[in-house]
Amino acid sequence: MDQWLNVLREAKRGNPYLSGIGAELNLDELIATDETNLTALRAKGKCPLSVFQRFERADMVEEYRSMYNFLSCDAHSNIRALVSRHFEEESSDFNLVLYKDEPLESFDATLDSTAGLLLEASLETHKAFGSNHVARVDALLAELKTLRAQR
User: Fold this and answer.
1) From 17, 31, 62, 83, which residue has the greatest number of CB atoms within 10 Å?
2) Per-residue model confidence as pLDDT tens digits over 97-119
3) Are 134 and 142 in contact (CB under 8 A)?
4) Are the beta carbons of 58 and 52 closer than 8 angstroms?
5) Helix (H, G, I), strand (E, B) or coil at 53
6) What pLDDT does residue 119 have?
7) Quick one: angle between helices 108-128 and 134-149, nearest 10?
8) Residue 131: its pLDDT value, please?
9) What pLDDT band is residue 82 in, cutting at 50, 70 and 90?
10) What Å distances lie between residue 107 and 59, 70, 76, 99, CA to CA?
11) Rounded Cα distance, 93 and 88, in Å
12) Helix (H, G, I), strand (E, B) or coil at 94
């Protein structure tokens, strides 16, 4: 809710990228309503969850501590990602590389994890909705397990 409130305030300030929001909505009324609601939630001890808390509630702590960690470093260009992308070590020296040619194998762990998560989520979704494609998703999961065993 607080992020939406930030967008509404920015639209009211006249941000040209948000002009459509200001033209279509009563910003003063929405901002006042959201501020009141946010104050009421905070008074009840409710506050935004951290990224870790969101993963924890989804029972995905392992994903947070592994795949999310790597993807977050890449997305936010932290020092680990920058070194990985732009430095090559040679004996006791290093080279700065602007366009490092990453071997395809360097993406294996990310692609494998992503494929597994998507297939597992697809399977659960198909089961939940009584889809007639459960067997097909099961077959894809079996194929992924076979590919993993071949490495």
Assistant:
1) 31
2) 887 777 888 888 888 888 998 99
3) no
4) no
5) helix
6) 94
7) 160
8) 95
9) confident
10) 25, 11, 18, 16
11) 9
12) strand
More confident residue, 121 or 89: 121
- Provide the 3-class DSSP secondary structure of residue 104: helix
Widest CA span in the chain: 64
Structure token pair of residue 15:
């941000």
Please tell me the number of Cα atoms within 13 Å of 19 on its side-chain side: 2
Which secondary-structure segment (H or E) carries 96? strand 93-96
Taking the C-alpha atoms of residue 69 and residue 66, their distance in angstroms, rounded to an integer, is: 5
Cα separation of 82 and 122, whole Å?
A: 34
User: Alpha carbon of 56 to those of 52, 63, 65, 68, 73: distances in Å?
Assistant: 6, 10, 11, 13, 19
Q: Give the pLDDT band of residue 145 (cuts 50, 70, 90).
A: very high
Angle at 127 between CA 126 and CA 128, to 5 degrees: 95
CA distances from 49 to 57, 60, 83, 135, 140 (A): 10, 15, 31, 36, 34
Rg value, the chain, Cα: 23
Q: Show the tokens assigned to 20.
A: 């459509």
Q: What is the pLDDT of residue 114?
A: 87
